[in-house]
Amino acid sequence: MQHDGQECTLHPYGAELGKTWEYGVWIPHELSPHQLQHTVDSCMELMTSHRNYEWLRNLITGDEKWVLYITYTHRRQWVSAGQTSVAMPKANLHPKKVMLSV
């Protein structure tokens, strides 16, 4: 394995130690310590202030997701001998999206 023209020696030793070479997991965003503590405090307040847990039946949760419009407009065409087919432009590099909320 080469890195900047030099032989990389970390890979064989990592394999001997039982390590694997993987990509990290993508996360949607990173919380600051203050935001993380605020989230934990809010959850703890909800759990301790309603000990009977009947309020969980009335709790509504939701989620949002960007959904791409996928419209396939490239279709086959019947073309007679000597004719050319109608040119179709490629799809946009940045497709149109819509926010789906549940």
Polypeptide structure, described:
One of its GO terms (molecular function) is nucleic acid binding. It holds the Pfam family Transposase_1. It is built from 2 helices and 4 strands. Helix content is about 25%, strand content about 15%. The mean pLDDT is about 70. The strands form 2 sheets. Strands 1-2 form a two-stranded antiparallel ribbon. It has a domain at about 60-70 and about 90-100. It has helices at about 10-15, 35-50; strands at about 1-5, 5, 65-70, 95-100.
Quick structural gist:
The protein is an alpha+beta fold. It has helices at residues 10-16, 33-49, and strands at residues 2-3, 6-7, 64-68, 97-101. Helix content is 24%, strand content 14%.
Question: Could you list some keywords that capture this structure?
Answer:
102 residues, alpha+beta, two-stranded antiparallel sheet, 2 helices, 4 strands, 24% helix, flat, Transposase-MT_Hybrid, Transposase_1, RNaseH_sf, nucleic acid binding
